[in-house]
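ok so I'm stuck.
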Amino acid sequence: MNQSDTNQTKGKHGGHGWMMMICCVPMLVIAIVLVATGVASSSFIFAAIACTVMMFMMMRMMGGMGGQGGEQK
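replied:
not stuck anymore, here's the structure
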């Protein structure tokens, strides 16, 4: 894969990482509502935040948010 191919690939999928992070927002909102209403314990928020952080780290390592992960030469 040459430099121009790399730039084109990043241009096509640049927003994918942000879309994945936005998909975590409903989970966080639901966790907060469940804890606020007493349905779930506060550790449920910790699990939701941990999931979001792991998703962020995974996307960074794979290069999905413009990071240097993935194929490197």
